[in-house]
Protein backbone atom coordinates (compact mmCIF):
# COMPACT_ATOMS: atom_id res chain seq x y z
CA UNK A 1 0.00 0.00 0.00
CA UNK A 2 1.40 3.36 -0.84
CA UNK A 3 0.07 6.66 0.31
CA UNK A 4 -0.31 9.73 -1.87
CA UNK A 5 0.81 12.88 -0.14
CA UNK A 6 1.39 16.45 -0.99
CA UNK A 7 4.92 16.96 0.24
CA UNK A 8 4.86 20.75 0.00
CA UNK A 9 6.58 22.47 2.92
CA UNK A 10 5.39 25.68 4.50
CA UNK A 11 7.78 28.13 2.90
CA UNK A 12 7.06 30.77 5.51
CA UNK A 13 8.81 28.55 8.09
CA UNK A 14 12.08 29.81 9.52
CA UNK A 15 15.15 29.11 7.40
CA UNK A 16 16.68 26.90 10.06
CA UNK A 17 13.47 24.79 10.23
CA UNK A 18 13.53 24.26 6.48
CA UNK A 19 17.17 23.28 6.61
CA UNK A 20 16.35 20.85 9.42
CA UNK A 21 13.44 19.33 7.45
CA UNK A 22 15.76 18.86 4.48
CA UNK A 23 18.29 17.08 6.68
CA UNK A 24 15.64 14.85 8.27
CA UNK A 25 13.61 13.85 5.23
CA UNK A 26 16.22 14.17 2.53
CA UNK A 27 14.25 16.62 0.39
CA UNK A 28 12.15 19.77 0.27
CA UNK A 29 9.30 20.41 -2.12
CA UNK A 30 8.97 24.12 -2.80
CA UNK A 31 6.18 25.95 -4.63
CA UNK A 32 6.54 28.55 -7.39
CA UNK A 33 10.31 28.79 -7.55
CA UNK A 34 10.37 29.40 -11.30
CA UNK A 35 7.99 31.85 -13.00
CA UNK A 36 5.30 30.59 -15.42
CA UNK A 37 6.95 32.51 -18.29
CA UNK A 38 10.34 30.90 -17.73
CA UNK A 39 8.74 27.44 -17.36
CA UNK A 40 6.82 27.75 -20.63
CA UNK A 41 9.81 29.06 -22.60
CA UNK A 42 12.25 26.56 -21.14
CA UNK A 43 9.90 23.62 -21.76
CA UNK A 44 9.53 24.67 -25.42
CA UNK A 45 13.30 25.04 -25.78
CA UNK A 46 13.96 21.61 -24.26
CA UNK A 47 11.39 19.88 -26.46
CA UNK A 48 12.84 21.57 -29.55
CA UNK A 49 16.38 20.55 -28.53
CA UNK A 50 15.25 16.98 -27.96
CA UNK A 51 13.60 16.85 -31.35
CA UNK A 52 16.70 18.10 -33.12
CA UNK A 53 18.96 15.79 -31.13
CA UNK A 54 16.86 12.78 -32.11
CA UNK A 55 16.89 13.64 -35.86
CA UNK A 56 19.11 11.26 -37.82
CA UNK A 57 21.15 14.29 -38.89
CA UNK A 58 21.00 15.81 -35.38
CA UNK A 59 23.86 16.67 -33.09
CA UNK A 60 25.64 13.57 -31.84
CA UNK A 61 23.30 11.84 -29.42
CA UNK A 62 26.07 10.62 -27.11
CA UNK A 63 27.16 14.19 -26.49
CA UNK A 64 23.70 15.49 -25.65
CA UNK A 65 21.92 12.49 -24.13
CA UNK A 66 22.88 10.91 -20.80
CA UNK A 67 22.12 7.36 -19.74
CA UNK A 68 18.72 7.02 -18.17
CA UNK A 69 16.92 4.20 -16.39
CA UNK A 70 13.87 2.76 -18.18
CA UNK A 71 14.73 4.50 -21.38
CA UNK A 72 11.69 3.73 -23.54
CA UNK A 73 9.80 6.99 -24.06
CA UNK A 74 12.23 8.71 -21.67
CA UNK A 75 15.30 10.91 -22.20
CA UNK A 76 17.89 12.78 -20.19
CA UNK A 77 19.09 15.70 -22.30
CA UNK A 78 22.09 17.79 -21.24
CA UNK A 79 21.59 21.53 -21.46
CA UNK A 80 23.72 24.34 -22.84
CA UNK A 81 24.26 27.40 -20.67
CA UNK A 82 21.68 29.44 -22.60
CA UNK A 83 20.10 32.58 -21.21
CA UNK A 84 16.90 30.71 -20.34
CA UNK A 85 18.80 28.03 -18.46
CA UNK A 86 20.60 30.79 -16.55
CA UNK A 87 17.40 32.62 -15.87
CA UNK A 88 15.72 29.52 -14.40
CA UNK A 89 18.68 28.85 -12.09
CA UNK A 90 18.81 32.51 -11.00
CA UNK A 91 15.09 32.50 -10.20
CA UNK A 92 15.63 29.48 -7.97
CA UNK A 93 18.80 30.48 -6.19
CA UNK A 94 18.41 34.22 -5.87
CA UNK A 95 14.99 34.27 -4.18
CA UNK A 96 15.75 31.96 -1.31
CA UNK A 97 18.05 32.65 1.56
CA UNK A 98 17.31 29.26 3.05
CA UNK A 99 18.44 27.54 -0.15
CA UNK A 100 21.78 29.16 0.44
CA UNK A 101 21.65 27.78 3.99
CA UNK A 102 20.95 24.29 2.62
CA UNK A 103 23.89 24.63 0.25
CA UNK A 104 26.20 26.18 2.84
CA UNK A 105 27.71 22.90 4.12
CA UNK A 106 28.73 22.08 0.56
CA UNK A 107 30.74 25.23 0.25
CA UNK A 108 32.86 24.92 3.40
CA UNK A 109 33.26 28.68 3.78
CA UNK A 110 34.12 29.28 0.14
CA UNK A 111 31.18 29.80 -2.25
CA UNK A 112 33.51 28.91 -5.14
CA UNK A 113 33.44 25.37 -3.75
CA UNK A 114 29.85 24.78 -4.84
CA UNK A 115 30.17 23.49 -8.38
CA UNK A 116 27.84 22.11 -11.02
CA UNK A 117 27.82 18.32 -11.25
CA UNK A 118 24.78 17.99 -13.54
CA UNK A 119 22.74 20.27 -15.76
CA UNK A 120 20.01 18.76 -17.84
CA UNK A 121 16.40 17.93 -18.46
CA UNK A 122 14.26 14.83 -18.09
CA UNK A 123 11.56 14.16 -20.63
CA UNK A 124 9.02 11.36 -20.52
CA UNK A 125 6.18 10.81 -22.94
CA UNK A 126 3.07 8.65 -22.62
CA UNK A 127 4.17 5.02 -22.52
CA UNK A 128 7.15 5.52 -20.17
CA UNK A 129 7.15 2.96 -17.36
CA UNK A 130 8.12 3.45 -13.73
CA UNK A 131 11.85 3.60 -13.14
CA UNK A 132 13.30 1.38 -10.46
CA UNK A 133 13.80 3.08 -7.12
CA UNK A 134 17.38 4.24 -6.95
CA UNK A 135 19.72 6.64 -5.20
CA UNK A 136 22.06 8.74 -7.34
CA UNK A 137 24.95 8.61 -4.91
CA UNK A 138 26.12 6.22 -2.22
CA UNK A 139 26.29 7.03 1.48
CA UNK A 140 29.94 7.45 2.27
CA UNK A 141 29.64 8.34 5.97
CA UNK A 142 29.18 12.08 6.49
CA UNK A 143 25.78 13.29 7.68
CA UNK A 144 25.82 16.13 5.16
CA UNK A 145 25.17 15.22 1.53
CA UNK A 146 27.99 15.67 -0.94
CA UNK A 147 25.56 16.35 -3.80
CA UNK A 148 22.19 18.10 -3.90
CA UNK A 149 19.86 17.93 -6.89
CA UNK A 150 17.10 20.37 -7.79
CA UNK A 151 14.29 19.08 -10.08
CA UNK A 152 11.96 21.75 -11.46
CA UNK A 153 8.61 20.79 -12.98
CA UNK A 154 7.96 22.81 -16.14
CA UNK A 155 4.24 22.04 -16.61
CA UNK A 156 1.33 20.96 -14.47
CA UNK A 157 2.06 17.28 -13.85
CA UNK A 158 -0.76 15.09 -12.58
CA UNK A 159 -0.11 11.53 -11.46
CA UNK A 160 -0.87 10.28 -14.99
CA UNK A 161 2.21 12.14 -16.32
CA UNK A 162 4.55 10.42 -13.88
CA UNK A 163 5.92 12.97 -11.41
CA UNK A 164 9.12 12.23 -9.48
CA UNK A 165 8.47 10.02 -6.48
CA UNK A 166 10.60 9.93 -3.36
CA UNK A 167 10.90 7.86 -0.23
CA UNK A 168 11.58 10.15 2.71
CA UNK A 169 14.38 9.23 5.13
CA UNK A 170 16.07 6.80 2.71
CA UNK A 171 19.11 9.09 2.40
CA UNK A 172 20.22 8.07 5.90
CA UNK A 173 23.20 5.84 6.62
CA UNK A 174 21.10 3.07 8.23
CA UNK A 175 18.91 2.75 5.20
CA UNK A 176 21.87 2.65 2.82
CA UNK A 177 23.51 0.03 5.00
CA UNK A 178 20.45 -2.23 4.77
CA UNK A 179 20.14 -1.47 1.06
CA UNK A 180 23.73 -2.65 0.55
CA UNK A 181 23.22 -5.87 2.48
CA UNK A 182 19.67 -6.78 1.48
CA UNK A 183 18.85 -5.37 -1.86
CA UNK A 184 19.44 -6.65 -5.35
CA UNK A 185 22.28 -5.27 -7.47
CA UNK A 186 23.55 -1.78 -6.92
CA UNK A 187 21.23 -0.81 -4.08
CA UNK A 188 18.07 -1.01 -6.17
CA UNK A 189 15.08 -1.69 -4.01
CA UNK A 190 12.95 -4.85 -4.00
CA UNK A 191 9.21 -4.37 -4.29
CA UNK A 192 8.81 -5.51 -0.68
CA UNK A 193 9.96 -2.05 0.39
CA UNK A 194 7.24 -0.29 -1.55
CA UNK A 195 4.58 -0.41 1.19
CA UNK A 196 6.52 2.34 2.94
CA UNK A 197 6.39 4.48 -0.16
CA UNK A 198 4.84 7.91 -0.08
CA UNK A 199 3.91 9.05 -3.54
CA UNK A 200 4.27 12.57 -4.72
CA UNK A 201 0.78 12.90 -6.17
CA UNK A 202 0.93 16.08 -8.23
CA UNK A 203 3.67 18.43 -9.34
CA UNK A 204 2.70 21.99 -10.15
CA UNK A 205 4.43 24.07 -12.81
CA UNK A 206 7.37 25.98 -11.34
CA UNK A 207 7.72 23.90 -8.20
CA UNK A 208 11.03 22.39 -7.27
CA UNK A 209 12.19 19.32 -5.42
CA UNK A 210 15.46 19.90 -3.70
CA UNK A 211 16.90 16.47 -2.98
CA UNK A 212 19.85 14.93 -1.18
CA UNK A 213 21.30 12.73 -3.96
CA UNK A 214 21.42 9.76 -1.57
CA UNK A 215 17.61 9.71 -1.32
CA UNK A 216 15.80 6.86 -3.08
CA UNK A 217 13.54 8.17 -5.82
CA UNK A 218 12.28 7.41 -9.32
CA UNK A 219 10.51 8.92 -12.30
CA UNK A 220 7.06 7.31 -12.30
CA UNK A 221 5.03 5.93 -15.21
CA UNK A 222 3.60 8.28 -17.80
CA UNK A 223 0.15 6.92 -18.66
CA UNK A 224 -1.29 10.17 -19.98
CA UNK A 225 -3.30 10.07 -23.23
CA UNK A 226 -1.06 10.78 -26.23
CA UNK A 227 -1.44 14.24 -27.81
CA UNK A 228 -2.51 14.60 -31.43
CA UNK A 229 0.68 14.50 -33.50
CA UNK A 230 -0.70 16.74 -36.22
CA UNK A 231 -1.94 19.50 -33.98
CA UNK A 232 -0.51 22.03 -31.54
CA UNK A 233 -1.29 19.43 -28.90
CA UNK A 234 1.47 17.05 -29.96
CA UNK A 235 3.40 17.85 -26.77
CA UNK A 236 0.45 17.28 -24.46
CA UNK A 237 1.28 14.48 -22.06
CA UNK A 238 5.04 15.08 -22.31
CA UNK A 239 6.54 15.67 -18.92
CA UNK A 240 9.58 17.93 -18.88
CA UNK A 241 11.76 18.56 -15.84
CA UNK A 242 14.71 20.94 -15.68
CA UNK A 243 17.35 19.87 -13.20
CA UNK A 244 20.77 20.67 -11.89
CA UNK A 245 22.96 19.05 -9.27
CA UNK A 246 25.55 20.83 -7.21
CA UNK A 247 28.36 19.32 -5.20
CA UNK A 248 31.27 20.36 -3.07
CA UNK A 249 34.52 20.60 -4.99
CA UNK A 250 36.31 20.05 -1.69
CA UNK A 251 34.86 16.50 -1.45
CA UNK A 252 36.01 13.63 -3.68
CA UNK A 253 34.03 13.15 -6.90
CA UNK A 254 31.22 10.76 -5.94
CA UNK A 255 31.62 7.24 -7.34
CA UNK A 256 28.88 5.73 -9.50
CA UNK A 257 27.46 9.17 -10.20
CA UNK A 258 26.43 9.97 -13.78
CA UNK A 259 27.67 13.55 -14.21
CA UNK A 260 24.94 14.31 -16.73
CA UNK A 261 26.43 17.60 -17.88
CA UNK A 262 28.21 18.96 -20.94
CA UNK A 263 31.94 18.58 -20.38
CA UNK A 264 32.65 22.30 -20.63
CA UNK A 265 30.27 23.03 -17.71
CA UNK A 266 31.36 20.20 -15.41
CA UNK A 267 32.72 21.56 -12.11
CA UNK A 268 31.93 25.17 -12.98
CA UNK A 269 31.36 27.13 -9.74
CA UNK A 270 27.66 27.95 -9.48
CA UNK A 271 28.50 31.55 -8.62
CA UNK A 272 30.48 31.93 -11.84
CA UNK A 273 27.72 30.24 -13.83
CA UNK A 274 25.11 32.66 -12.49
CA UNK A 275 27.27 35.70 -13.20
CA UNK A 276 27.93 34.73 -16.84
O1 LIG B 1 12.21 11.51 -13.92
C1 LIG B 1 12.40 11.73 -12.73
O2 LIG B 1 11.61 12.38 -12.07
C2 LIG B 1 13.61 11.21 -12.03
C3 LIG B 1 14.60 10.63 -12.98
C4 LIG B 1 15.74 9.97 -12.32
O3 LIG B 1 15.85 9.90 -11.13
C5 LIG B 1 16.81 9.34 -13.14
O4 LIG B 1 16.64 9.29 -14.36
O5 LIG B 1 17.81 8.90 -12.55
Describe this structure in words.
This protein has 276 residues and is α+β, with helices and mostly antiparallel strands. The protein is built from seven helices and ten strands. Helix 2 packs antiparallel against helix 4. The structure holds 2-oxoglutaric acid (AKG). 2-oxoglutaric acid is lined by residues 68-69, 76, 122, 131, 164, 217-219, 241. 2-oxoglutaric acid binds next to strand 9.
Indicate the topology.
Layout: E1 3-5, H1 15-25, E2 27-30, H2 36-54, H3 61-64, E3 74-78, H4 83-94, H5 97-107, E4 114-124, E5 147-153, E6 164-166, H6 173-182, E7 198-200, E8 208-212, E9 217-219, E10 239-248, H7 270-275
Parallel strand pairs: 1-7
Antiparallel strand pairs: 2-8, 3-4, 4-10, 5-8, 5-10, 6-9
Helix pairs in contact: 1-5, 2-4
Main attributes of the structure:
276 residues; alpha+beta; Jelly Rolls; 6-stranded antiparallel beta sheet; two-stranded parallel sheet; 7 helices; 10 strands; 26% helix; 20% strand; binds 2-oxoglutaric acid
Question: What is the compact description of this entry?
Answer:
This protein has 276 residues and is of the alpha+beta class. 26% of the residues lie in helices and 20% in strands.
- What percent of residues are in strands? 15-25%
The share of residues in helices is: 25-40%
Please state the overall shape, judged from the principal axes of the Cα atoms: globular
Are any ligands bound, and if so which?
A: 2-oxoglutaric acid
Tell me the span between the first and last alpha carbons. Answer: 48 Å
Structural class: alpha+beta
Any idea how many domains?
1
CATH homologous superfamily label: q2cbj1_9rhob like domain
Class, according to the CATH hierarchy? Mainly Beta
